[in-house]
Amino acid sequence: MATMTFVEADGTEKQVDAPVGMSILEIAHRNSVDLEGACEGSLACATCHVIVDPAWYEKTGVISEDEEDMLDLAYGVEDTSRLGCQLIMTEELDGLKVRVTDEM
Ligand code: FES
Fold first, then answer.
1. Domain span at residue 23?
2. pTM greater than the 0.85 cutoff
3. Interval between CA 73 and ligand 1 midpoint (Å)
4. pLDDT of residue 102
5. Nearest C-alpha to atom 3 of ligand 1 is from which residue?
6. What is the domain-level CATH number for residue 64?
7. Residues with Cβ within 6 A of ligand 1?
8. What does the pLDDT look like over 68-97, one tens digit per residue?
């Protein structure tokens, strides 16, 4: 079983089980991490915005144009921002670390 770490808005780190094939948004929800995801993964909001630890960003793969467009609407976007609903856990991402922001 892969694991990943969420860094919550207050800096608390939460290491959780991260089943391969599940989105980062789904993993956040099943572990009570405060990540909204208002459109439930249909790429119609940006409330699932996470900031990937720079050491992991390259491994998260290519970002789609639709995701990029939606990210333009998110607050506090950084170079390693992704949408949690579009980022799917893989074996390669075992150990992934992402930060959630409290700006929606
Ligand atoms: Fe809306 Fe990810 S949950 S874009």
1. 2-100
2. yes
3. 11
4. 79
5. 37
6. 3.10.20.30
7. 25, 37-41, 43-48, 70, 83, 85
8. 999 999 989 999 999 999 999 999 999 999
